[in-house]
Amino acid sequence: MPRLDHRAFINTCRDERGVGHHTLRAYTQDLRTFARFTAAHRLSDPLSKDDILAYHRHLRDALGAKPATIERRLVTLKSYFAWREDRNSALPSPFADVRISVRIPRRLPRPIDRDTLRAVLQAGDGPIAPRSTPGEHGATPASEIAVTLLIIKLLIVTGLRISELTNVKVRDVALDGSQILVRGKGNKERIVFVPNHELQEEVRRHSEVRRREGSVAAPLFLNTEGRRLRSATFRKRLRALSRRLGIEPHLTPHRFRHSAATLLIEEGIDIRMVQALLGHASLRTTEIYVRVSNHALRRALERADVLDVLRN
After folding, report:
1. Domain containing 12: what range?
2. CATH number for the domain including 83?
3. Residue 147 burial class via C-beta count within 10 angstroms: exposed 0-12, middle 13-18, buried 19 and up
4. 185 noted as active-site residue
5. Which residues of the chain are under the pLDDT cut of 70?
6. Domain count of the chain?
7. Domain end: 254, 275, 304, which one?
8. Nearest-5° angle of CA 291, CA 297, CA 302?
């Protein structure tokens, strides 16, 4: 059986390539799945093209994996064997002559409609109201609904991934609340702007409270116990809010990201600017939002009323 050096590969991806935590976890899962396959079929080095094709059939037919999962597992494996060959040329990659085409159906994103967004924003209002019980390190957590709504507003305006926002530190926020430094996939940094003056003031007040409470290296958003708010906790809050407001399907952070992109394109923002805001490596990823938005097309056609132009 071939020896798959999982740990060394994962360490290289983390330390040298800056790969994020969630991606590293997926890589580990993908490599373990392949290791089980090689053990069950008693495969040994050097692996061949036929072994990879057999693994593809195993994923598709025996495991019934979805096309996107199959593609990810093969891409992970291909990266692993390229890394292994680079370290030891005596172990060539079995992917050298492999040509596998995995058809992945393009699913349209599901943004939240405007009426639902308005209902969510009206679910609770008012300034950040600190609780009286100090949390970890003496920090006083703000009220749960205030923090939840502040994050929702930021998701709508910035299109951030929830993991990017929950990892923001106090020092990453401009003193006037107008911009935030975030770290995206691959630990790439980018700046997102908060154009709404009312929201800027909310962000400024919240970060000012957090600065007074302690280190600028501390998380910007805390849970009710005074610890860093985690993505999973925020998702639970959204599910509870969805039940309260009768929203189906329930709200998710990524649906707010879809909404941010769709709203910006509907308002005429150039697609390349939306790409930069969302942190997409490829414009192709952003282009899907153009297909989603019929509202923008209708407004553009109304502005360019060709019959009206011909009459005048």
Report:
1. 6-87
2. 1.10.150
3. buried
4. yes
5. 1-2, 102, 104-109, 124-142, 285-312
6. 2
7. 254
8. 175
